[in-house]
Amino acid sequence: MTRLGSYIVYAPINVDDLSMTIRGHDSSKVFLLPSGITISELPEPSVEEASSSRNHGATKGSLITVALQIEISSAAINSDSVEAAKALVISTMLKIKDGLNFCDLV
């Protein structure tokens, strides 16, 4: 991992849309919504920061940033669509946590 971090970028696509595109059909109607994660290295705390009571026991670590794009019609925004989006975010975070063997997810 470089100082800038590691990136995973992906764009889920419907199997039928993928098949049509592979067969040479018009791909302009296929919507790709890229999503992804970055893992950035956190800097080592300075001696002063590490010894302060507020940062007692601070250690070097990583910051994970998740970006998801979800297509929802403005006419369809209701509590169900919000809950579905929330469930997707939580599910994604838990899968990342499990994949990286995190014991704590803040």
From TrEMBL:
Pfam families: PDF2_C. It comes from the Eukaryota. This is HD-Zip IV C-terminal domain-containing protein. Residues 3-101 form the HD-Zip IV C-terminal domain. PANTHER family: HOMEOBOX-LEUCINE ZIPPER PROTEIN HDG10-RELATED, HOMEOBOX-LEUCINE ZIPPER PROTEIN MERISTEM L1.
